[in-house]
Amino acid sequence: MASLFDDLPATIRLIDAGAGAGALTAALVYRACQPDSGVKSIHVTAYELDSQILPALRRTLAECEALCRNRRIPFKASLHQADFIQEMAGRVSGDLFSATPPSFNVAIANPPYKKISTNSPERLALRSVGLETSNLYTGFVGLLGRLLETGGQMVAITPRSFCNGPYFRPFRVDFLNRMSLHRLHVFESRAAAFRDDGVLQENIIFHASNGPGQAPTVMVSSSRGEMGDSDSITTKLCPFSEIIHPSDPERFIRIPVNNGYPDAKKQLSGLPASLASLGLTVSTGRVVDFRLKDALRPAPERGTVPLLYPCHFNGGTVHWPKPDARKPNAILDNETTRHWLVPSGIYLLTKRFTSKEERRRLVACLFDPADVEAEWLGFENHLNYFHANGRGLDRALALGLFAYLNSTLVDQYFRCFSGHTQVNATDLRTLPYPDQKTLEEMGCSLQSPGIPREALDQLVEKHLHGIQ
Asked: Which domains does the chain have, with CATH numbers?
């Protein structure tokens, strides 16, 4: 992370918010103390709320001071055991009782990760500076961006989840309006970067600077995340328009690291349709089981209808009921639950959550009422379902969508902007789609949802080739 900064300023005013034991500050100070750095003085401002780690942070800062003294570089450190968001949001917003906010030219951060509720003190503090976000880490990054002077640089390691999805859209818009991206680095393994802490999260490192004038290219790199010389880093220079599509209102940050992405983008970017133009949409399953637990039943009985979970996916179709499942198989159909049910019909279902290490990020499954007889259905919240104004789909169209979404081509395209394991309905709405005629022809050509992946890929590429 310390190596990702461009030329360091002669007088470094560094902020490390959520400093922990000070490893990031120490790395940057070590770089600044190299003979060719051009650094003349360093002033570190560190924020850390956890009292148990403060002794380690103080030792790190003392070691930084000793290193700078040996290099004849003046060094000063200010350590704050305070809530960074509460304190800095008050100062940035111009609170009557708060001091003027400081200005920094370098920020390095591994901020805390935690969801914050709508009316929490943190959320209200961030809202006071015009920052709407649902997680502490994006709150930290947003505030740090506001504290940097024009041209000031930031390097941070955070979850990748802010890159897409509806919840982080306000943060993406704010960040991209204020900051210019220079570098994006992703880890191929979710477990490697913070293995010792038991964190299973896909992380990225980004380098950005404060101010307008986004460069036309961004350096994108990837590695396993393992320690040691064997962990090779692959890099490539990408047009900024490939990272954030100019016509994308969601401002998704795409990170094209897989080898198949360029070909997938080339083939899919020319597709003419959207879900809306097809007269379709995709929604998240309505049944939140813990809110309706009194209505759930382990097996179908009189007065119930099928309740479908990802565990009912099997070979591209729904196998229901599943007697040995840990999840319930049925839900009561009454005045309380009817609002959360959908009329039976042909639907295309996708899993909302998959493991990053799974072969496929997109997993689509066909629900056919011929296999499960019922008047109404319950789709649990861990599913997305494609529908036509709340009702089922034409069979040929549903099968065409099934083939398209399960193809390797779409999976490679999807992975470049969906780094986390959640597949949001918004993500699926923003995908490009073939026109209705092509999807229906694709569906009519599909002999069975259970055909091998290679045969399905060949079928999709054959039909897409016809509309290029």
From this structure: 2-256 (3.40.50.150), 281-465 (3.90.220.10)
